[in-house]
Amino acid sequence: MSRISIHKLRECKDSGKRFAMLTAYDYPTARLVEQAGVPVILVGDSLGATVLGYESTVPVTMEEMLHHTRAVVRATKKSIVVADMPFLSYQANDDIAIENAGQFLKAGATAVKLEGGRPVVSLVHRMVEAGIPVMGHLGLTPQSVNQFGGHKVQGRTPAAAARILNDAQALEDAGVFALVLETVPEQLASMVTSRLSVPTIGIGAGVSCDAQVQVLHDILGIYDDSRILHHSKRYVNLGESIRGAIRAYADEVVEGSFPTSEHAFSMDEDVLHELTQASGSIVE
Ligand code: KIV
Question: How much is the pTM?
């Protein structure tokens, strides 16, 4: 079974068919996401917070991203796997950036995603020329959270909105096959979506984007089930279910009701008899 082609996403946009992208960072969850029919899996650097316990995406390394990308690739056969390029793996030097992107493709990813507008346009062009499919990412780009001074909506002033519109066009011209728009006003996302030929994938950017992306741990309520983010929707509170199940297991162990004979293995009566007879003469 071969993977869905990135060109299929453009066909979706052309025929007005929305699609979902979702993050996954490990083998079991990537399998579930693919089994649920999600065509694009993002190994997001959001794993810094959701899986590794960092405060932001900034500390995430190439090694960590590659490790998780390989697990997601092993778990899937059909879905497009997009690997996020971590902070400083592409900003300092274009040659190193292309080598790093190549490592993700060698690990089995279909494409890479990188954040930013003008400053990465020529790099995107070079990557695409080198045969590396690139997804763009504009708006609230989490690797620049320190620069933005927090998780704030981007593109609210005429100048900031115009910059996002221009950057989006420049990224499309450089060859991105899709563009994530994060935490921007829905009217702006709608304008970008109607101007671009490649699909826009929104998160906190309204319904008029061609597709949506969410962080798996947010929609399942695993990461921090005491908090629902404005741009997110929790479809199940797995955090509560998992805690309940673990508590029940631990309680049963303490009170001796698990395991029962149903979960144990027994020995043949003859062997047991022989063992009991001989036990006196067994020297350890
Ligand atoms: O890292 C991530 O999960 C992302 C999405 C939020 C788009 O970049």
Answer: 0.94
Per residue in 236-248, pLDDT tens? 999 999 999 999 9
Q: Smallest Cα–Cα separation from 110: which of 86, 65, 79, 88?
A: 79
Q: 214, 232 in Cβ contact below 8 A?
A: yes
Domain locations along the chain: 6-236, 242-283
Ligand 1 centroid, distance to 162 Cα (angstroms): 23
**Type of residue at 249:** Y
For ligand 1, whether the C-beta of 45 sits within 6 Å is yes
- Would you identify the CATH topology of the domain 6-236? TIM Barrel (3.20.20)
Distance between CA atoms of 11 and 239, rounded to whole angstroms? 37
Cβ contact 145:186 at 8 Å: no
- Both structure tokens of 41: 């899996």
Read off the tokens for 122: 């020529």
User: What would the pLDDT profile of 134-174 be if each residue is shown by its tens digit?
Assistant: 999 999 999 998 889 888 999 999 999 999 999 999 999 99
In angstroms, what is the span from residue 96 Cα to ligand 1's centroid? 22
Mean pLDDT (whole number) for 167-188: 98
